[in-house]
Amino acid sequence: MRILITAGGTSEKIDDVRSITNHSSGRLGVAIANAFYEKTTTIDYVTTNSAQKPSNTNINLHLISDTKNLSATLESLLSQNHYDAVIHSMAVSDFTPATSLSEEQLLTVLNRLLKNYQGNSLNMTDLKNGIRELEELPVTEKKISSETDHLFLILKKNPKIIQLIKQLQPETILVGFKLLVDVSFNELYTVAMNSIKKNQADFILANDLTKVGEKQHLGYLIAQDGSYTTGTTKQEIAELIKAAIVTASKQ
Asked: Which Gene Ontology MF annotations are present (predicted)?
């Protein structure tokens, strides 16, 4: 059996010294890798420098930084290898910085935009074109100056990495992850089922940040047919995922 696991969280570069990141530790990914590790299983483990990593040296580590880097790494691995299952637990940034502007730069562009439409009201298309103009401003500084009183970031949407997986390997068993914050079980379940359909996942591990801690981790492994199993620790969740994949691979 060959398994691909992603874990940790991406970091999106603002300049050479700043970035936008998240709080994903990678601990659940480590638990999953440990659950799957045995002599007959090959594990490719994609993670980041800052995340916790499996200690077993026989696990193949692939380090990435941002979403673009992750996409290229997964495309390479999925094109070169056949995977029985892909467990995509990495927290991937929804947005990445397109450019940054000082207060002066932003006001200059807005002033020019308003002059072009003097006496006329701006419609939504005009405003969107103005945003695109801001987005296309080049970033040349290795470190953004701190002299400006306000710094403005233009963020653009990242592609959904999970959708790449089934495009490249339609037959693999795909386990996706969905994390929400302080919601009811019904809402969490509904969002997870929608994610299964949208991303062609076989399973989604749905969890709520308010129920995730150092020792506790409440998670629901939801299948395509709507059934689910419950784990209360990272180790339990890892074993649930392993059992589900082993069963699905025999069908």
From this structure: ligase activity
